[in-house]
Amino acid sequence: MQEILTTNTLVAADPNATHLNDFAVRAMIIDDSRVMRSMIMQSLQKAELAAFDFTEAGTGSEALDKFDADLIDLIFVDWNMPEMNGIEFARHIRSMPWAHHIPIVMITSEAGTDKQQNAYDKARISCYVTKPFTVEELQDKIGPVIAAIAKKLRPPLAPAINAAPASAPPAKQSGGFFTRLLN
């Protein structure tokens, strides 16, 4: 029997960083290795791309059971897992009209260009990261994905209207209208 691990962990980015850390990205991490899930979460924290609220799953099937499109902004999935691999999981998500827009990052040891192309073509993943990876690699590859999420979560403000400054009210004259009329 496989152990099911549910973790919702808020990992805050360094508040002094200059990256997109002023919002929380709700990310699902799917990998059959608990150690690898932990490494991915720690590396994302070190990358300081955002604050993250993580949900973990050990298989694609478990991830589908936990998945809620309203509560997940980004998915990180391994390719090689028991029960349902990462490609099958991604294809399930892409087939859901209410969830097909969620970015999926494949983090895997499958390094061949044919494998990468297969992931892009068949599973329509958003980004491909090969294990082992560095924090800098995550910043380079996942940074644009996080920036796109940030735009959706916080759309740009409408441009300011350039209204002319209000002119000062006319100076008051002594006496009211009738007083001046009678004088």
Q: How would you characterize this protein structure?
A:
By secondary structure, this protein is α/β, with parallel strands linked by helices. 36% of the residues lie in helices and 17% in strands. It has a 6-stranded mixed sheet with strand order 1-3-2-4-5-6, sandwiched between helices. α1 packs across α5 and α2 packs parallel to α3. The termini are far apart. The relative contact order is 0.14.
Shape: globular
Radius of gyration: 26 Å
Number of helices: 6
Tell me, rounded to a whole number, the average pLDDT. 80
Amino- and carboxy-terminal Cα gap: 102 Å
Helix content percent band: 25-40%
Strand content: 15-25%
Features:
183 residues; alpha/beta; six-stranded mixed sheet; 6 helices; 36% helix; disordered N terminus
The gist of it:
The protein is of the alpha/beta class. The chain is built from 6 helices and 6 strands, in the order ββαβαβαβαβαα.
Which helices and strands, and how do they pair?
Layout (H helix, E strand, L loop, with lengths): L7 E4 L12 E7 L3 H14 L3 E7 L2 H7 L7 E4 L8 H9 L9 E5 L4 H11 L3 E4 L4 H19 L23 H6 L1
Parallel strand pairs: 2-3, 2-4, 4-5, 5-6
Antiparallel strand pairs: 1-3
Helix pairs in contact: 1-5, 2-3
